[in-house]
Amino acid sequence: MxxxxxxxxxxxxxxxxxxxxxxxxxxxxxxxxxxxxxxxSPDTVREELKRVLVRELDFDEAQSEKLINYLPTRWVxxxxxxxxxxxxxxxxxxxxxPLMALAIALNCGIITANIKDFKPAAKxxxxxxxxxxxxxxxxxRKAKLS
Length: 146
What we know:
Elements: E1 5-9, H1 11-19, H2 24-34, E2 37-42, H3 43-57, H4 61-70, E3 73-76, H5 78-81, H6 97-106, E4 109-111, E5 127-128, H7 130-145
Parallel strand pairs: 1-2, 1-4, 2-3, 4-5
């Protein structure tokens, strides 16, 4: 997937997609399927997403697992990002630290709806607003077509 943008993706982006596939998050998933972006998430996001889909959208556990498996996401085990968890302490909210650590490990940005919580992380990695990332991806697509 050369030329694609790598991003570490937060649970809330996936939830927005499952809640409304026609949303901006749905467009991001479309770009990932097309290979314009590569989505990565730590194993902790996968587990949280399973719980959220059951709790908020009344999916059963088997449905949640099946849907998560269809996401165009590379799920990353803690061994890959563990050594960067100390640097990730710049983020106060402990459940968000694996996202930060993974972004540092992969040298890429983070896409989240919780921009405020990740503000301190902007010193180390790019924190994408979804509109901004979609605009960049759209411009890249247009450039490839011309």
